[in-house]
Each structure stands twice: as C-alpha cells, then as structure tokens.
C-alpha cells in the first residue's frame, strides 16, 4: 500500500487516470514534491537549453534577460497558478475544465486552442528533439573532434538539411514518447527523470564552469548580464513573453491537466514559485554555457536554432573528458526533452479519451500520427522545404512563432481574464491556500496580479505581437 502511494508521487497523470478509471475516481499526486517533479519535468526541456540562449542572443542579451525574469514571476507564475486552480477545481482536461466550469460561455474555445497548440508545439519540438538523438550518435562516433566553429556549423547545416535522417529521428522521438505514455510510465518515467535531471544539472554546471573559465569568457558574460537597453526592441519584449510561456509550459492545456491531479490540501502558490525558479535557473545556466563559449570562439552572439548544436560540441573539445561529457549531455538533453513531450502528448490524448471516450491506445496513435504528419513538414523546413514560406516564415518558424508568441500568449491572456474576472476571487484564493492553510497574504497578492497586472501586461504584448509578427 505504502509502495503504491510512493509510486504515485512520480508517475504521470496518465497512470493516475488509468489507475482511477479502475477505481472509478480520479487520483492525485501524493504531495507537493510530486507536483513540482512532474511540472518541472514538463517545464525544463529544450526551451531552456536550445531555445532560450538563441532567443536571448537575438534580442539583446542582458536587457532581454531582465524583461524575461519579470515576465516569469509577475506573469508566468500567476498564469500557472490560474491553470492549476481551475484544473484542480474542475478535475478535467483543458477543454473539459472550461466546459465544466462555464458550460454556457465560449470559454471551451480556450481549452481547444490549447490542445491545438500542444499538437503544433510537439510538431516542431520533435524536430529538435530528433536532432539531439543524432547528436548523441555523433558524440559516440567522436564526429566533432578537431572541428572548428565553421566546420561545426557546416556539420549542423549538412545534417539538418538532409531529408531522411532528421525525419527518421523525429519519428523515433514521437514514437518513443507514445511508447512511454502507453507502456513505460508505470515503470516511472518521473522516477527516472528524478534521477537523471539532477545529473543533467550537475553536467550543465560543470560545462558552465568550463565556459566561464575560457579565454574571453567575460565578454560573453557581459553580453548576458550587462543590459544594453538600446538593443532591446519591442519585438524582443514580445519574444521574452513568448519564451516565458513556452518555457513554463503555460498558456495551453498542460498545467490545467496537471492541476486536476493536485490534491485539495496542497497549497498552490509556493509550488508554482518553485517550479518557475527551477525552470529559470536551468535557462540561465543554459545561457551561461553558451555565451562565454561564443565569445571564446569569436562568433556572433546571435545564432539561430543551431546555436547550442554548434557551440556545445566546441566547448566539449576544450574540456577534459569532453568525449564522455558530450555523450552524456546530449543523452540527458534527450531525456529532458522527453519529459516535456510526454506532457505535450498528454494534452490531446486526455482530450480524446475524456471527450470522445476513445481508448487510450487509439488516442495516442491518432495524436502521434497527426504530430508526425505535421512534424515532417517542420523537419523538412531546414532542407527540401526551406524556400517554402508562409508570411515570410518556414513551416518550422511559423509553428514556433505562432504557438509561443501568439497562441500561448493569447491562451495565457484568456486564462487570467477568466480566472481574474469570471472564476471568482474567493474561490481562487481558496484554491491557492488550500482552504486557508497556505499563505493568505501571498494568495491575495497573486489574485491582484491575475486580475490586473497579468491581463494588462499580456494584453499589451499580445496586441503588439499581432501587429509586429505580421500574422494579420
Ligand atoms: N516547457 C518546455 C520546454 O521549455 O522545453 C516546452 C513545452 C512543454 C511547452 C510542454 C509547452 C508544453 F505544454
């Protein structure tokens, strides 16, 4: 009995649901640690290590970082708490949560948009996750040995522009995620990630130590930590909000779904702050790995989606034991990506199972097939389809830009408007404090952020993103 309880701490909602269908009632994470582990597993991923450094690099470094931090804590945490609160209250998937809490309004559209966003994110995320697998292989074969930055950039370009292998790796990654959801989760993917993620963190810290001790490192650190406000554009501000939402896995269905498995007596506020802190520390370490290395290599600060795949192999060559470091790093990065893709796949699967009474197997097959279909177009955006653009963006860029900067920011906006103005302040504070047990003052402060600060902040940025993004 105790064993089962212990196991429930680190299993995904899938298991809980499976478990509870058997028991005719929904299960729950057994405590705060479980919630933090599962949600941080979703939050920490390629967004922190692959996306954050290059988005920060392209948008001004230090100034971007400050705006990003403000967004994470003043907007991201309130949005995450809003999602947890309504998910827990309704005990349902993203679409079902709105349908159940507000059957009459059109709020269910917000849930539906989240489900579409999850499918689209997985479609381009799978491309990059596939690259990490190729880089595990390359590391094992010691392919980077002796390559300078130009050669590493060439290696990256040559690989990603091929039609076959990147597609094969993407399909393998989606299949792996589907497999874990279907069979492996009981064995405790969360348990596994609970062991592997701290190892990844140790590895990242070791790489950071090497990065900051490289010649010229201070230039890179200066770029990251010394804000040059003149280099921050309005578009950079939009990108900071989009990156915050993407990195925290908010503005769509994930945290609503996870919220539905949080026990009633778990106070929410401190939980979300811990998850956001975890996520931010990894993103910062990601950037600390990359920028000093760039300065050492004498390369440009901006670098696009290839940034991490070019700079890290360079730093591994400058490290003792770099061969092993490279293999371990890319392997663990794949695992970090996997804990995020599991949470992405769970969103459409839970929707299909709950709303269409589909079997879990069918729902997983259907969702994965759609993701692979779209994923092929995203993957080919770096080669065969690189000239095929919509609104001036490749399919990969379009999916990335549209989800992070538009769908997630609009999703987040509508979620805080719903919670701040329709859900009811009393109910919200009750959820945040677990019926008055948690910090009431903090809960009241957060309810103000949800009602006023977050909607105004996101609203301004979201409107800007429509205009500047050129989508309309
Ligand atoms: N937060 C993940 C990352 O930073 O890699 C990406 C992600 C996962 C976004 C799950 C959205 C989501 F629902």
What labels would you give this structure?
single chain; 472 residues; mainly alpha; Hydantoin permease; 20 helices; 0% strand; binds 4-fluoro-L-phenylalanine
Describe the structure concisely for a colleague.
It contains 20 helices and no strands. By secondary structure, it is an all-alpha fold. The chain is globular.
Structural features, described:
It is a single chain. The chain is mostly helical. Helix content is 77%, strand content 0%. The longest helix has 35 residues, at 322-356. Residues 1-26 have low confidence and may be disordered. 4-fluoro-L-phenylalanine is lined by residues 42-43, 45-48, 118, 121, 246-247, 249, 252, 254, 340, 343-344.
**SS content category:** mainly alpha
* Rg from alpha-carbon coordinates: 21 Å
- The tally of strands reads 0
Major sheet: size, sense and barrel closure?
A: none
Number of helices: 20
Cofactors and ligands: 4-fluoro-L-phenylalanine
Quick one: overall form?
A: globular
Summarize model confidence as the mean pLDDT: 87
CATH topology: Hydantoin permease
Question: Separation of termini?
Answer: 56 Å
Structural domains: how many: 1
Under the CATH scheme, the architecture is Orthogonal Bundle
Helix content: over 70%
